[in-house]
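Lab meeting prep.
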Amino acid sequence: MAEPHDLTALEQAVAIARGELSSVELVEHHLTRVDALGDTVGAFVTVTGERARAAARAADAVPAEERGPLHGVPTAIKDLTLTAGVRTTFGSAAFADFVPPVDADVVRFMAQAGLVSLGKTTTSELGCSLYSEGLVAPPARNPWGLAYTAGGSSGGAAAAVAAGLVPVAQGSDGGGSLRIPASLCGLVGYKPSRGLVSGGPVGSGAYGLPTNGPIGRTVADVAALLDVLARPVPGEPYLAPAPPEGGWLGAARRADPGRLRVGRFTAPMLADEPVHPDCLAAVDRAAALLTAAGHEVVDVPAPIGPAVWPLFEIVWYVLALAPVPPEREADLLPLTRHLRARGAEISAGTLTATLGELQAQVRLGVRRTAGCDLLLCPTLAAPQAPLGWFAEGGDPAEDFDRQRRFSPYCAVFNVTGDPSVSLPVGVTAEGLPVGVLLTGRYGDDARLIATAAQLEHSSGGWDRHPAIWRAVGSANVNGSGVGRSAP
């Protein structure tokens, strides 16, 4: 007999369709868990309980023939994502009371699909760091070990999913912000191809680096949410790749990418940093599973090397220059102020030249691996990082450099625009998760998702849970219990 939160997102929707559960019951169950564990793992900035209950009642009233694969399922929205009528702080005390008048496109799509948001998840301030430890909410902690960070900038989303507070969540990824927390928390974090998911209706586009995307416990759940998020919107600056037959969920369920050539490398791309043996072992395990599935795995050079870091650095400084009311600048964290100060020193000409040179270097790197269908590498240079470790010295420059050395892989694929996913293939001797990064060709999300699903099946499944998972429960919420169903 399973608790409702034991079910995957797709299984929860099946339970609703069969009449075993209602959306209202699922929402109440998960809100109970949020109330008990939300602050412990630092998952939420704002919980919207009454709004969620109303949405669940509306979801239950929708005729069965009008329901999609995730209808009525609880979820959450990252606090960087505009949500009309709901406090959205961007992870910053400078916006502690900001309430947007409009929804981001992805928020609107999720509501139209019948998903029920329980609130806004913790993020790093303005999305500037790979850990989520700000002033507007408790720090996002790893449910597998509360002394460790859940990562960032989608750290609260990862903490919420890994602790069983929601089965799947929306996040965004501008330099690894979905894949880093997924690796740390034992989840599937998916960065779609550039243009596949709308970043509208407002925003600069940030040179095409960030994109909205899903995070969940299984590839199928993540693919189902991608189907919801990836809808064409007029006016978007990048051409969206076409979906496969049956959508992204169909690709995950088929789990048949054909025979592929997979290029493996482990050399860090943005830092000259030793890679932890557990991260290397996870890559080896993934390579062995891919080989056993019939794919050709070959060693390739890393597409780029640490010499390119100064170009990335300039772009990151400028991206920190989000509009902030002048009178609220003092409310920003030291790291954010440091990045913005550096960004303010960069001229338009320097930025333009940097973007051009960076694209040229990335083009050369992509050509070095052009014979490969997929690339396999570590997600991070180390399996975990203690809470507070990045900023412990009090020097923002050292903080930023520690982040670079901890995550020297993910950001490259934000520049290329390629689809990239972190998969929880490995585990440390202490039982903590270790992710690997699988990256596809631009626009070839279907093959990447199919391969990820194939790897999940050959691994025996990744829906593992930390000890905190059993800390709260409510057996038999509808009096008859809930059994696991095939997604």
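Slide two material, second protein:
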Amino acid sequence: MGIKWPHRALPAVSLALALLAVTGCDSTPGARPEPGTAPSTSAATARSVARVCAHPAAGPAKAPAGAVTVDPSVTGDLAAKTKSNPPNTTFWLRPGKHRLEPDRYAQVIPKKGNRYLGAPGAVLDGRRTNQYAFGGTARDVTIRHLTVRGFVAPHNEGVVNHDSADGWVIEHATIRNNSGAGLMAGARQRVRASCLRDNGQYGMNAYKAKGRISGLVVEGNEITGNNTDDWERRREGCGCTGGIKFWAVDGADVRGNWVHDNRGAGLWADTNNNDFRIEDNVLEANDGAALIYETSYNAVIRKNTIRRNNRVEGRRSADRGDTFPFATVYLSESGGEPRIRARTDKIEIYRNVLENNWSGITLWENADRFCNSPANTSSGDCTLLVKDTDRCARPGIARAPLYADCRWKTQRVDIHHNRFVLDPSVVGCTAKCDRMAVLANYGTYPDWSPYQGERVAEAITREQHNRWHDNTYVGPWKFVAHDPSRVLDSGQWQGTPYRQDAGSTFRAREGG
């Protein structure tokens, strides 16, 4: 699973592309603001944000009627009382630091319908000893007004809802300074008004080992400072970092969140996700892309404020001479598919403001990535249109329907009524931070691939109904079509044969 950026994924690059001379950026990134501080604003992009890390809502100061009181002075009291009480019990955690038994696997195993309410100042502390805070498979568990910190979940595992049980509600919680993911996700999970901060890998890992996650709601949260363990450097190309990672989620509403200052991507949907609505979020100052939508389907991305993202990873790419248009909104082998049930049959990106990020939107297909290909970084996974991966082999893969269905396609992407603002002096760059792109590589691998040559590049550029129109551009934007070597001005982009951005306006001299 996970994406390998094109400079690593392409097994062969033409000599002409490899020898392109490119000037990188010569200034250094600004200091990272402290997570929880107010976001930057401008007249064009001001939007209220979920400042829940700095201003968490207080829990009940007294135990609700019928609640079981949990004593922080008694080690293991929470787990013991959970075990001894029936399902649907409410637990009220007194102010203070609550601890589990000093065993790495000690954890709270809720029963169906349990509710855990933290008083003001209630903290469940793993003391860098316990791996998990809340686990098990009980459904419909609620956690409110509780701080969970200091747990040491392993790589790709999570601290709260460790076993991805269904129907959990996480509200007004602070999940911070843990290893691994602060939170896992199950079907019908609701994560609202919570602070997911400074966790070692992800703020939340929406992954379920068996079955798919559906009906996920992520609303009004602050998601900041995650991937403190810098996993991409520890395991290069792992695709295993970000504010939130989504895996095979079928139906998600991600709205009203403030996703900022994460090391890596802000939001990353990776491998067979479908039916997303990503709206009314503020995505800013993430080291990598604000949003990656990879090998996935059918989404609406609208009314988001997206600013100051991708400056660290984009600059790093430019400095090493990479010609790929690293983007702030990156769609990799993802598109609309009417045969897969969703609230939309395309990917529609509209009414967003993108301001002073490193580049804009890139639509990409790796011609060598398809079911059964050794270049498929989502190892063992196939598209949602082919149940038997072994069918994607010669000779059948060269004919309909497998020729189309064995690859994830960037198609039916509609990008309109957005505002793209770029001032290179604000971003701190001299080149390659100004790209909008639709492209693929030259197919070469494996030797039995039916997608060799320029077939995929031609398809994504001209045949798969990918369209920009009615957008507003402020600043010196450039456009890349077909392959990384074709860098166009706005007139070439709008002209034959690409005919993109009909009805759009370009004001190149106004800056940001």
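Talking points for slide two:
The chain is about 10% helix and 30% strand.
Residues 1-46 have pLDDT under 50 and may be disordered.
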